[in-house]
Amino acid sequence: MLWANTHNKMKKRNTIVVAGLGLAQLVLLSTSAVSQTRDTTNLDQVVVTASRSPKKLADVGKIVNIITKEDIAKAQGRSLPELLNTVSGLIIGGSGSNPGGIQSVYLRGASTANTLILIDGIAVNDASGISGEFNIAAIDVSQIERIEILKGASSTLYGSDAVAGVINIITKKGEGKLTASALLSGGSYNTYKQVIGLNGQLNKTKINLNFSNLSSKSISSAEPADPNVIFEKDGFKQIGFGLNLSQYLGNRITLNGGLQANQNKADLDNGAFSDAVGYTYDKTALFANLGAKLSLTKGDLSLVFSQNNVKNQFDNNPTIIKNKGNISNMEAIFNYQFNNVLGITSGANYKYNSTDQKYIDPTYPSSLNSNNHISSLYTSLFLKGGNLFRMELGGRYNSHSQYGDNFTYTINPSLVFNNQLKVYANISSAYRVPSLYQLYSDYGNINLKPETSQNYETGIQANFLDNKLSFTTSIFKRKLKDVIDFGPKFSYINQNRQNDKGLEVQLGFKPDSKLNFNAFYNYVDGKVKTSDVSTETFNLIRRPKNSFGATLGYAFTPKFYTSLNYRWNDNRLDQYYDPTTFKAVSVNLKSYSKVDAYVQYQFKKIMLFADVKNILNADYNDFAGYTAMGTNFNAGLSFNFN
After folding, report:
1. In which domain, by residue range, is 130 found?
2. pTM for this structure?
3. How many domains in the chain?
């Protein structure tokens, strides 16, 4: 039980968002500057995540939010969680707190384990964790070219965990003339970052090389219950390395290889309202992939092998936790467009998971060494009837070494009018497999079934005024059964039924190359029904029912750009563990507003930037008993040279 509590404390300390003033909402809407210059949603934009092949947004009946290369370039010095926290439908817990904490991803109100993270289209998980979700803070934003956020159930093409959607982190590849780059920045809490990189193409070889170093004395993760008490600051260090290589063999075959590695070291606290001295965390993560692509007349065939290794050590003398998790993944993917009417994406996947965990404690020592595997076959057909009708029909069969077989499907029709208005509907199923810890640990249950969901969604996506104005709205409903929960007999069980629903509205306006405005409103509601209770209870803790965001960017000249970002989150329900009573305590976290400002200026090959976060110094909490940063800044310079 101590092991589970220690892990849960780690998760709690790592979740943060944004707080404050409702009047700022009106001020921002009339201001001439805001955060990222994300283009309005153009149906001609090409995305790869929705169908595992390049397709225009007009040809896929789903919502895909894009953080482009240009967006990232105009948000220098920000972390990946901070970038994602500006996207409609996403709450990134921990994005405004100690950078050493694990960042929790809540997409459309779903639990963190129900959003699948991809790196270059390949699923990544943490086999050493309790529920297996991947820590997005492990990837430095300097390695990233582009991010696609696919909304809605996507298990047919991507398998386990793609219940609420998929976040595809597309890393930099070599393009153009060979160029070296560097970034130097510093800011509040003695935070310093250095990045060097090399990117480009030599003959038939593409290369991208990246090295980053980040350190911060940061803030205490835990918040004192007594404001007169001062807790120790929790430091953080991160070293990251990225490498991508592509080699063309003739005109039809391409070989690809990638490596992302990082080491995170952080000071930890003992939990909500509880400081700790000498409690440390050391994590090493490595993700490597090798692949080959054969280009065909109207498609391609890809073979991919990836290895995802994570090693953790928690040291809280005299207790030491050592966890290792390894995932080996092999996949073959076939994409082909037979004619103007029919296209196909089909594949076969094999994933092997293993973990070695040791809980070293004088009183309650324990260990876990286990593995399992899952094999899948999947196919989606993409139908196109002239300029009006689109349809995706897909299915996936899975065979798991522990729980047996399951099947998922997708039915996704859409209509496109004049390439300006898309109306779509989606009926699909999705699933999440139990983790190794939930199956085989001291608290595990080898009879666990996968969580499964039935999903319904409809919406519209429209462009007006020659793509200067865009509007997107979607309504979704998600019904989960066999939800994995920690039962009253101190073991994991399939118990709950979870019913979620929500609404998303997005508006974009880009009248010219200088001004760009985006806004969104999200509503989510979720209720749980346990096997021994007839009533449903709201249970989306840490997730607001209502949230609103707006970004407005303005380029005064081609060299001078400035922006503002505003976010408001409604009040939220939270719970924390009280070690004196051994019970969960429920609290209500107040609503808040948060405003960030960014400015950059380009001198030929050198760019200066400054980023001020929480400029109104909002006092807020993402989690009860944990802190968030007040007003803080980051400034620096980046430059490129041939």
Report:
1. 2-641
2. 0.91
3. 1
